TrEMBL record:
Record protein name field: Argininosuccinate lyase
Record-linked InterPro entries: Arg_succ_lyase_C, Argininosuccinate_lyase, Fumarase/histidase_N, Fumarate_lyase_CS, Fumarate_lyase_fam, Fumarate_lyase_N, L-Aspartase-like
Main localisation: cytoplasm
Keywords: Amino-acid biosynthesis, Arginine biosynthesis, Cytoplasm, Lyase
Pathway: Amino-acid biosynthesis; L-arginine biosynthesis; L-arginine from L-ornithine and carbamoyl phosphate: step 3/3
Family indicated by similarity: Belongs to the lyase 1 family. Argininosuccinate lyase subfamily.
Keyword set includes Amino-acid biosynthesis: yes
Catalysed reactions listed for this entry: 2-(N(omega)-L-arginino)succinate = fumarate + L-arginine
Domain Fumarate lyase N-terminal: 17-311
Gene Ontology terms: biological process: L-arginine biosynthetic process via ornithine
NCBIfam families noted in UniProt: argH
One Gene Ontology MF term: argininosuccinate lyase activity
This enzyme's EC code(s): 4.3.2.1
Amino acid sequence: MAKRTKKTEKNKKLWAGRFSKSMAKSAEVFSASVHYDVRLYKYDIGQSIAYAKTLIKAGVLTTQESAKIIKALTEIGKGIGSGKIKLLSELEDIHMNIETFLIDKVGNVGKKLHSGRSRNDQVATDFRMFVRAECLLVTTLLMNLQTVLLELAEKQIKVIMPGYTHMQKAQPILFSHYLMAYYEMFERDKKRLECVRSEADVMTLGSGALAGTNFKIDREGLAKELGFAQISKNSLDAVSDRDFAIDLVAACSMIMMHLSRFSEELIIWASDEFDFIELCDQYSTGSSIMPQKKNPDMAELSRGKTGRVYGHLMGLLTVMKGLPLAYNRDLQEDKEAVFSAVDTVKATLGIFAEMVATLTVNTAKMDKAAKCGFLTATDLAYYLVNHGVPFREAHEIIGKLVAYCEESNMQLEYLSLQQLKQFSEKFGYDATKILSAQSSVLAKDLVGGTAPGRVKEAIKRARKNLTAHKA
């Protein structure tokens, strides 16, 4: 037999024992994932170190062998992080790269590390560790944006704007109340991420390829070493489950949906037709042909990137929909989708917080808009209800009153008592005092309402909640 060179030995697959022919170069390129799953290297190094310790208890490694492996793995991790160690695509993925580098460093003792461990449970554990960490990072970014919203809500607490349904003026609300609506959306997003993190907080090592392992692996001790709350209960499910990854992308999709809704309104409000806000020059762009333009590109990109994340969610669901138990190579397609979705959300949350923190509120425009459009019509209907008129009758009376105002080209706020009485004798002088936007807002004095006191309470609760979460 011809003597093998070191290069030939390194390029040899660690699984090549039963094969008589080398893998085609095209197949190597097609199946390689190291160019993106390198992001898991810290988690793979960490779990391999923990596994090396566990193999002492299992009788596979001596204390000296384990220490030798751990020292080498630590050096490999530093080398990958610094860029001194170059990863090889022919070694398929980050896991095979690390194992190959380990064997190069410590020789045959390095070949013992994979005892009882499959790439199937190894990858799943790495991926779960990644998802746990990313949930915390995204949550921090959500909290940063919530903080920006609270600061703006406190600053603009007196500003009244029109509330809309069907994009038609509906009732007056505080601008701060509007901002707190998005705070609540992002609060739900945080709770979803907590659930995702809990779902991912399950260690799969010890599942082997699909059936478990013959070695006495202390799974509980290994889970504790890696910071997992629990261990998987079924080896078949453990290596083929990607629910936690789908849950993360689904949570990311919800975050992007909320940001997209917010973007849509910022884009509309920054238009000359509304002019409710002005976005800072630093987060806007100009036109290559029209000198006067100031485009809300960061908001538009935030809205547009939502489609990318939605696509990753549908892609993952489609990958999983027909997979038989247990592991199939299709599952290699999970990571790029998750990586891209998480990166998109983090980038969007970051730029969004900056954009909202620097926008200018045109309070005069909002106030003017809240004074026209018959926004206090519902308050007048409620006035009649409080004076014994059934709501449906009151609704019809005020509808006719609004039609009268439209024909007369006037607003409800300027109606006299004599004019009101033309439509109902139930109107008294006090009815003329509830026709302003300010009065309407003050009247919504209940938990969750837009009255200033209630909004201040909501901001205070939110501040307390954020402080507790950070602690």
